[in-house]
Amino acid sequence: MTVMAERASSQLSVDVFERIAEFAAREDETVGFEFIGGRIGVKKVTNGSHGEIAMWLVFHCKQARPDLTLNPTGQGLKVEAYRRGRAKPDAVLAPTGHFNGKGDWADPDGVLMAVEITSYDSDTHNRDRVEKPKAYAEAGIPVYLLIDRDALSILVHSDPDPEVGYRDIHVVKLGGKVTLPDPVGIELDTEELRDYVD
Fold first, then answer.
1. What Cα–Cα distance (Å) separates residue 116 from each residue in 16, 20, 23, 60, 164?
2. What backbone torsions phi and psi does residue 100 show, to the nearest 5 degrees?
3. Among 62, 66, 130, 144, which residue is least crowded by beta carbons within 10 Å?
4. pLDDT (tens digit, 9 = 90+) per residue, 122-152?
5. 155 within 8 A of 148, measured Cβ to Cβ
6. Could you count the other beta carbons within 10 Å of the beta carbon of residue 30?
7. Could you read off the pLDDT of 75-123 as tens digits, one per residue?
8. Which residues pair with residue 130 across a beta bridge?
9. What is the Cα–Cα distance from 27 to 78, expressed in whole angstroms?
10. Contact 36, 131 (CB under 8 A)
11. What span, in angstroms and rounded, lies between the C-alpha atoms of 132 and 99?
């Protein structure tokens, strides 16, 4: 579940946000914070099916591309124009060792794919289908993979443009085969994912 609070970006600096997020993480490990579009998002721990989907994807990405690691631990990324935003994707694909020593909020350079898995909360549409694709495209992340449990679909966003977002969005129903384009270059058979939608 995510709750978003409106804030003008001039009222809350990224430095202040990062201190708030760091303090909150020490006090309560069941939530994480994001700062996108001048809004603070509180992202609660997900359910078991959400985690199973993430781990399924980790396994298949590593099997297809051993040179890459799909990190499902909530690695924070600096996103949006001039890195004013902070996002915690459900998983991030990058070369093995890419995030070593990068801290809580890493620069997106070198990230090949950001992954989100929809949650069953009131903000999932705005967060996962509107704000995050825009932020990830602005940051130049080549592929954004959205596993949409509500629509029983996989959406592959590619060809990022900082002005308009992702130019190409390919939709496949759960159970079908999907190709994650270069630089990811992985094909997935999503039949098994149908078991993890609840």
1. 26, 23, 24, 16, 20
2. -60, 120
3. 66
4. 777 777 888 889 999 999 999 999 999 989 9
5. yes
6. 7
7. 889 997 645 788 889 999 999 999 999 888 999 999 999 999 988 767 7
8. none
9. 23
10. yes
11. 20
In which residue are the tokens 């809580």 written? 104
CATH number at residue 177: 3.90.1570.10
The verdict on residue 62 lying in a domain is: yes
Gyration radius of the chain over CA positions: 16
Tokens matching residue 146: 């959205």
CA pair distance 72, 74, nearest whole angstrom = 6
Compute the distance between CA of residue 110 and CA of residue 122 in angstroms, rounded to an integer. Answer: 32
Quick check: is 125 in a domain? yes
CA atoms within 13 A on the CB side of 165: 12
